[in-house]
# Entry
Amino acid sequence: MLLGGALSASAQAPSRRPRTVAGVCGAANWVCVAECIDAACVDQCLRQGCETSLDKLQSCTEKAGCAPDDTSCPTRTCGQVCQKAFEPAPPSPEKEQQDPCASVQAPGAEVPKDVVGRWELAAATLKPEPPGTPARADPQPRPDFVRSLEVQPNGCFVLSTQLKDATLGRGNQLEVRAWGLFAVAKDDKVTLQAKDGQATGPVCGKPRVIPLSKGKFRGPRYKYQVEGDTLTLTIDDPSKRAFQFQRVETPEPPKE
# Structure
């Protein structure tokens, strides 16, 4: 099933610009990314104060000519450029949340069983075509953005976006997560009420755990539809922008 309708190219443009510090990539950008589903939204989040510094970092590693299997080369040759591209690590970094849903209180309404599980983005709407052209959907989202949505029986969700080195520069990767309540309302409507989040992964040769708890999450509302192993989220506004996820089967633990 392809997504229909003549929809916006931005597909999920953030409603506000993230506040940035001295033109570097930081927590404000990751809070913005945390609620994104499609690549255009992520691009917009990184464009504000982050794009120029990432371009300089990419240019540095390209000039260095690092071999693909030399993982230490980017840090060794472009370490100072990398440090200027990202906010410095906090003096007292927090630990990574291995089970973020453990601290989320369950909502009053139960989550439908057919929504529970792990889902990965399979298609997102593209920009409108000229009049008379059939609407299209992107069946293969960009490989440098990997997005997944996990909904647990207790009503907790985790929305995860993986930013790889094609986006953040050689040797840098972050998994940006937001978690909170998958709040179901009437008429198959749901609001993703994010309560907290983290961005974790190697940056400039060192592991980072970046807290997003001070960010202002928007809590977008969608209309949801499940057909077999396909979950479609349609933004509840006049644009009707939609995102299609495929169910990911979680392997059962081996029996002892």
Summary: Residues 51-64 form the longest helix (14 residues). The domain at 27-90+98-248 is CATH 2.40.128.280 (Lipocalin). Confidence is low (pLDDT under 50) at residues 1-11, 15-20, 135-141. Residues 174 and 201 are 5 Å apart (CA to CA).
